TrEMBL record:
<dbReference type="GO" id="GO:0017004">
    <property type="term" value="P:cytochrome complex assembly"/>
</dbReference>
<dbReference type="InterPro" id="IPR045062">
    <property type="entry name" value="Cyt_c_biogenesis_CcsA/CcmC"/>
</dbReference>
<feature type="transmembrane region" description="Helical">
    <location>
        <begin position="177"/>
        <end position="198"/>
    </location>
</feature>
<feature type="transmembrane region" description="Helical">
    <location>
        <begin position="65"/>
        <end position="82"/>
    </location>
</feature>
<keyword id="KW-0201">Cytochrome c-type biogenesis</keyword>
<feature type="transmembrane region" description="Helical">
    <location>
        <begin position="89"/>
        <end position="113"/>
    </location>
</feature>
<dbReference type="Pfam" id="PF01578">
    <property type="entry name" value="Cytochrom_C_asm"/>
</dbReference>
<feature type="transmembrane region" description="Helical">
    <location>
        <begin position="238"/>
        <end position="259"/>
    </location>
</feature>
<feature type="transmembrane region" description="Helical">
    <location>
        <begin position="204"/>
        <end position="226"/>
    </location>
</feature>
<protein>
    <submittedName>
        <fullName>Cytochrome c assembly protein</fullName>
    </submittedName>
</protein>
<keyword id="KW-1133">Transmembrane helix</keyword>
<feature type="transmembrane region" description="Helical">
    <location>
        <begin position="119"/>
        <end position="147"/>
    </location>
</feature>
<feature type="transmembrane region" description="Helical">
    <location>
        <begin position="6"/>
        <end position="24"/>
    </location>
</feature>
<feature type="domain" description="Cytochrome c assembly protein">
    <location>
        <begin position="78"/>
        <end position="259"/>
    </location>
</feature>
<dbReference type="GO" id="GO:0020037">
    <property type="term" value="F:heme binding"/>
</dbReference>
<dbReference type="InterPro" id="IPR002541">
    <property type="entry name" value="Cyt_c_assembly"/>
</dbReference>
<keyword id="KW-0812">Transmembrane</keyword>
Length: 261
């Protein structure tokens, strides 16, 4: 019920952001922010409720995972809107949330793990998910960077140009999301190793999830090292963040097929 209510609030936030885009008015931005903030609180309430019911960190089915992803996306959306003062941010982030919400409804019956009471799992999962969310946000704002760049080159300062943050702000968000995401993902990966050592009696078993996480960390690690040592233009940074996500998706499919085969 809480998960359903959260998705409804995100839909209302999207409508409010749409009114802001087409009709203007700061009040619609504030309404959209209120809806997203409330929805994130509901997501958090859903997580806490499930944790209380199961007596362990909630990772029973895919709906639990989608709820955490949506929670982090909602928090990030509110924070970015606070920084850029553009409700257009919601128009690009909330559709991703709604798609994930629909996926959560469709896959709520798919069990993914037994319940674990380990403290390290409660550290590993949120940090890994939040890091991944920021990688996706970085790629999304990388795409928006190229859209805004195209508007500038064409000297088209119309509807779409005014809807998006400035190109400098898009670059800043793109870069910051990737770096912070990498730090969070690193903490998640390390805590996952520790959890695995306890879970597998001192051994590390190379599961598909572990292999995928390692490759994801390696891909974005290379991007960040190149950026820090050789430097990257804002355009190259945006492109690398998009390429990083594409590489991760392709790698995930490859890992899944390899393990299955």
């Amino acid at each position: 019920m809480l998960f359903d209510f959260a998705i409804l609030l995100y839909l209302l936030a999207f409508l409010s952001a749409g009114f802001n885009a087409f009709l203007g008015g700061e009040r619609y931005t504030k309404i959209a922010t209120a809806f997203v903030s409330l929805a994130a609180v509901v997501n958090l309430s859903y997580l806490i409720t499930r944790w209380y019911l199961f007596g362990a960190f909630p990772i029973k089915d895919l709906k639990d995972i989608f709820n955490m992803i949506i929670l982090f996306l909602g928090v990030v959306a509110v924070y970015i809107n606070y920084k850029v003062k553009k409700a257009g941010v919601y128009l690009f982030v909330i559709p991703v949330i709604i798609i994930l919400g629909i996926a959560g409804f469709a896959h709520s019956s798919i069990l993914i793990h037994k319940q674990f009471s380990s403290f390290w799992l409660a550290v590993h999962l949120p940090f890994t998910i939040s890091g991944t969310v920021l990688f996706v946000v970085s790629a999304l704002f990388g795409i928006l960077y190229f859209i805004q760049e195209k508007q500038l080159k064409k000297k088209n300062f119309g509807y779409l140009y005014n809807l998006l943050p400035s190109i400098d702000m898009l670059n800043k968000i793109n870069k910051t999301a990737m770096i912070v995401g990498f730090l969070l993902f690193t903490i998640g990966l390390l805590s996952g190793y520790i959890w695995g050592i306890y879970e597998w009696n001192g051994r590390i078993i190379l599961t598909s999830k572990l292999l995928f996480s390692m490759i994801t960390w390696f891909i974005f690690g290379i991007i960040i090292v190149i950026k820090k040592t050789k430097g990257m233009s804002p355009r190259d940074t945006a492109f690398s963040s998009i390429l990083g996500i594409v590489s991760v998706v392709v790698t995930y499919i490859g890992v899944a097929l390899f393990i299955k085969g």
